[in-house]
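Consider the tokenized backbone below.
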């Protein structure tokens, strides 16, 4: 059959090479392919320690297409998952976490999460039910998932804080995060400070000195004090210049404000727990990649040292790192580089597994990738990334798989798997559907790709919503009755009241309070998914004071401003806020910039008055205000003004001053709205001038007539 260069036949079906033998480890009893395990181990271990990763997409040599593919996890592996953005690499990383946890292997699973999506492992997934049933699986949440975050100044304190001890940092860690040359005077000073704080030093005291005893557990303050007082460091002959000391002291003082240092740090036993998942949410924008690398490096070093320690150590631990190119960049050393290279090289014997996921294979550290024994490759687009993948493939890659057109043509969930331990050649696999919810819903394999829903009336969604979640207050119910008709022609979902109900396919029925209790980026990511759904209709929030000011961290709204989801333009995405006057002005601005249209209501004598703002195109760099309520008030002001002018024209002073006072009160209602206030104030200024002129004429005895 005629074939195309993209690796598919003319009918769009993927063609698989048949010219090279599969030569994979096939277990007849399991009727499955097993990777990451030798034949001798298979006879001894049988089905113990097997992780179900997916189904093979090829046939041959006794292997049938659709057979399950297992990974032997009795020995730790160094796994490399790669794929361009949206290919499903983070989804696959979640499959590894699920399998390590659900098989009761007494393995601890720790995920380094720089983008804040793996909190959803604790929640039940959806979609692809038939496929899971065929595989003997069902949707479930992993309730033993613990999400930890480092405290960050200016952000709400995390529910499960992740801290590290200053004592766990080597001199090289400080040099990496401060970007200091190890052979410079500054690098030498950091090394000396740590040695002296640990071993003790002589602190200058007037003409003499005082002995300061060493500490195993010390703080940044101890380091600063040593730099300021140690006799040797201060020595004009053998010490360091004032400039060098000041530069290090200033950096250390800056590090004190990072927020995640504590005297002892979070115990490793809290992080590495058998048959459980710990997600280290490092998604706060305030952290930056250098601090993320520092935290990751310290953790990797502590895990390895603990496992090498033998008795009393933590359980066998697999460390999973998403967006690894940020933590381990190629050509640049970070605080994580040396610890993770050592972890990969020395971790096999003590049971330290490592799984790296990245969208940039070409931008990931070569020393770590040289230790990889299993590659799971999703689709790639860039030539450099494809070359890096082929270079690091630990087994033979068929020529049909090695072409850029083939690798670019892989669908979400389709992967090329290369296994060093099992031998044979690389083969094609479909990653199994997730059991838990995947929060990064760009693309999901196995039939779980979120399909755009047909546009439908929000009223239909309301009819299917559980009443207990839909309407929680009389105020919200009144608002719904009044304003639902204003957007009932729009398609999509409706969230309302403090229950914030949405269709289960979108949020699983989470309340806004639950959203607010999640990690910062997880909350934003969930709201973004709601907004980006093509059928998205409206979000109704009642009780703004409580909902947005107390439930959600302010940084959520800040990120709204930063993200500026321009893809929303023209898609009828609305957010509806009740009692907008209770919302801080800066919060309101953030929300207005996050959505194309924001409908704002406030309660006025039992009715809801609407205030509408529509976001213009970003290229215009401004917001056009269309406010029906203000226009109506302005019209009332203008009518009052004309009535008062008529009185002036007739020379009637009775009630004129009271009318002017009433006009002033009306103008106060539009105070702060630049255009409306300017017009109304112009009316008042002209009227006051005419009234004064009329009074002067009457006092002078002139005949009162129309004011010119």
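A designed sequence for it:
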């Amino acid at each position: 059959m005629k074939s195309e260069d993209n690796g598919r036949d003319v009918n769009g079906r993927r063609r698989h090479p048949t010219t090279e033998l599969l030569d994979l480890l096939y277990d007849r009893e399991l009727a499955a392919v097993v990777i990451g395990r030798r034949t001798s181990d298979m006879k001894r271990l049988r089905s113990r320690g097997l992780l179900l990763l997916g189904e093979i997409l090829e046939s041959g040599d006794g292997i049938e297409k659709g057979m399950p593919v297992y990974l032997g996890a009795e020995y730790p592996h160094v796994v490399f998952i790669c794929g361009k953005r949206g290919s499903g690499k983070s989804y696959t990383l979640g499959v590894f976490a699920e399998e390590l946890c659900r098989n009761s292997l007494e393995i601890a699973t720790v995920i380094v999460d720089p983008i804040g999506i793996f909190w959803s492992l604790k929640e039940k997934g959806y979609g692809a039910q038939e496929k899971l049933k065929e595989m003997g699986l069902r949707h479930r949440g992993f309730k033993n998932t613990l999400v930890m975050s480092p405290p960050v100044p200016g952000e709400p304190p995390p529910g499960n804080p992740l801290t590290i001890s200053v004592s766990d940092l080597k001199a090289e860690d400080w040099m990496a995060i401060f970007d200091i040359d190890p052979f410079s005077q500054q690098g030498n000073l950091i090394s000396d400070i740590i040695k002296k704080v640990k071993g003790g030093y002589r602190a200058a005291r007037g003409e003499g000195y005082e002995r300061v005893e060493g500490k195993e557990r010390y703080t940044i303050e101890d380091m600063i004090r040593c730099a300021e007082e140690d006799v040797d460091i201060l020595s004009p002959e053998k010490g360091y210049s004032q400039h060098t000391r000041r530069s290090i002291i200033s950096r250390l003082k800056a590090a004190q404000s990072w927020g995640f240092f504590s005297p002892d740090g979070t115990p490793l036993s809290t992080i590495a727990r058998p048959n459980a998942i710990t997600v280290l949410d490092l998604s706060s924008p305030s952290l930056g990649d250098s601090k993320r690398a520092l935290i990751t490096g310290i953790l990797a070093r502590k895990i390895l040292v603990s496992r090498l320690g033998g008795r009393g150590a933590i359980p066998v631990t697999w460390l999973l790192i998403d967006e690894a190119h940020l933590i381990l960049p190629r050509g640049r050393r970070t605080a994580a580089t040396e610890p993770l290279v050592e972890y990969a090289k020395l971790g096999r014997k003590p049971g330290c597994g490592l799984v790296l996921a990245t969208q940039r294979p070409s931008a990931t550290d070569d020393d770590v990738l040289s230790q990889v024994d299993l590659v799971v490759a999703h689709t790639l687009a860039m030539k450099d990334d494809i070359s890096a993948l082929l270079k690091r493939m630990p087994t033979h890659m068929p020529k049909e798989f090695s072409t850029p057109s083939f690798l670019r043509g892989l669908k979400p969930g389709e992967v090329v798997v290369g296994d060093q331990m099992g031998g044979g050649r690389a083969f094609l696999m479909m990653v199994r559907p997730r059991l838990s919810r995947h929060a990064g819903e760009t693309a999901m394999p196995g039939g779980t790709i979120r399909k755009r829903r047909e546009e439908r009336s929000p009223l239909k969604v309301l009819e299917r919503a559980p009443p207990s979640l839909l309407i929680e207050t009389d105020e919200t119910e009144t608002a719904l009755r009044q304003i639902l008709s204003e957007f009932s022609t729009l398609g999509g979902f409706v969230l309302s009241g403090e229950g914030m109900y949405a269709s289960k396919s979108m949020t699983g029925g989470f309340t806004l309070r639950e959203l607010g209790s999640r990690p910062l980026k997880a909350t934003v990511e969930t709201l973004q998914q709601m907004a980006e759904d093509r059928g998205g209709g409206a979000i109704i929030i009642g009780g703004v004071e409580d909902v947005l000011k107390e439930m959600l961290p302010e940084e959520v709204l800040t990120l709204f401003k930063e993200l500026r989801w321009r893809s929303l333009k023209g898609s009828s995405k609305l957010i509806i806020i009740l009692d907008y006057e209770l919302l801080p002005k800066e919060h309101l601005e953030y929300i207005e910039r996050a959505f194309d249209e924001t409908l704002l209501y406030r309660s006025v004598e039992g009715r809801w008055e609407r205030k509408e703002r529509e976001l213009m195109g970003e290229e215009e760099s401004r917001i056009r205000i269309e406010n029906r309520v203000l226009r109506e008030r302005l019209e009332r002001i203008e009518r009052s003004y004309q009535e008062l002018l008529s009185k002036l024209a007739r020379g009637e002073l009775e009630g004129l001053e009271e009318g002017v006072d009433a006009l002033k009160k009306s103008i106060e209602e539009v105070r702060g709205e630049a255009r409306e206030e300017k017009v109304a104030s112009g009316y008042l200024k002209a009227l006051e001038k005419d009234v004064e002129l009329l009074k002067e004429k009457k006092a002078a005895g002139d005949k009162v007539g129309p004011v010119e």
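The chain has a mean pLDDT of 73.
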